[in-house]
Amino acid sequence: MRALITGGAGFIGSAVARAFIREGKDEILVLDKLTYAGNLASLQLVASDPRFSFLKADICDRTAVTRAFADFQPDVLMHLAAESHVDRSIDGPAAFIETNLVGTFTLLEAALEYWRTLPAARAASFRFQHISTDEVFGSLGADGLFREDTPYAPNSPYSASKAGSDHLVRAWGHTYGLPVIVTNCSNNYGPYHFPEKLIPLTIINAIEGKPLPVYGKGENIRDWLYVEDHAAALMLVAREGAVGASYNVGGSNEWRNIDVVYAICDLLQELRPREGGYRDLVTFVTDRPGHDLRYAIDSSKIERDLG
Predict the structure, then answer these.
(1) Disulfide engineering: 161 pairs with which of 6, 83, 100, 258, CB 3.0-4.6 Å?
(2) 257 and 214 in contact (C-beta within 8 Å)?
């Protein structure tokens, strides 16, 4: 298989790229703009492999995207390129609208044009795989789980832009017949995680003896998913997912933010003892505007349909 991976130098995208090269015989082209969240070091382990290639380009650049399709001739587009940091979306939403909505539209148009030129057998096997987030579903109370049929209710500029991109993908599938699949994942963690995010920020600040900022009272709950497990799920969907389907990918691993921070503090105290411990570095800060209380995913469909 030939996989074109947008955002493949990002946190989740690079995990997908590494997994493809490590586990299969597939060829991949990583397309990434290399913004603040793109990190070529995350691809260093696979960059020298002859089945790996890289193109620095913006998904909003129709000429570059069209050329990438024409030159690489992918069997699947795995679309992970996105502005994804909620706090940044609150401070500067324009970049999120541009990348997540206009960029996705540009990819859809280029993919549709490319798909229509393919021979029948290749057109039938082509997939436009759009990777999204559980945040499009809004916020849960103490009970319940997000399912694939949960109504969309995004609450931040980030989640609204991702919800819009999900709707665009489904519209291109329904209206034009483009073979699309959507996945919605819970909070990822693991190697090469961007240092603004909760887990790496807590680790880095703790090691440096800096305050460990926690929003509000730390009671917001997230369903944590190991990034390499997510990559494995995305590769499985690329090979076996049903056209037009959506799949929720979660870790079934709910933690309050404060408990995540305390767990890191306690592990660090074992590995790198500090006088007085690390918990005293925890600093509660003003809550994020519109901070969703709880996310949790029902992954039973992908378990049932794809094993």
Answers:
(1) 100
(2) yes
Full set of structural domains in the chain with CATH: 2-192+224-252 (3.40.50.720)
Q: Report the catalytic residues.
A: 134-135, 158
What pLDDT sits at residue 198? 94
- Report the DSSP pairing between strands 282-285 and 246-249: unpaired
Amino acid 235 reads: M
> What are 273's two structure tokens?
């003892």
Contact 76, 131 (CB under 8 A): no
Cα distance between residue 246 and residue 231, in whole Å: 16
HEC string of the chain equals: CEEEEECCCCHHHHHHHHHHHHHCCCEEEEEECCCCCCCHHHHCCCCCCCCEEEEECCCCCHHHHHHHHHHHCCCEEEECCCCCCHHHHHHCCHHHHHHHHHHHHHHHHHHHHHHHCCCHHHHHHCEEEEEEEHHHHCCECCCCCECCCCCCCCCCHHHHHHHHHHHHHHHHHHHHCCCEEEEEECEEECCCCCCCCHHHHHHHHHHCCCCEEEECCCCCEEEEEEHHHHHHHHHHHHHHCCCCCEEEECCCCEEEHHHHHHHHHHHHHHHCCCCCCCHHHEEEECCCCCCCCECCECCHHHHHHHC
Q: Contact, 84 vs 144, CB < 8 A?
A: no
The answer to whether the beta carbons of residues 260 and 273 sit under 8 Å apart is no
Report helix, strand or coil for 172.
helix
Model-level pTM?
0.95
β-pair partners for 30: 5, 54
Judged against a pLDDT cut of 80, whether residue 85 lies above it is answered with no
Cβ within 8 Å of residue 95, ≥6 positions away: 83, 88
* HSE, side-chain direction, 13 A CA sphere, residue 111: 30
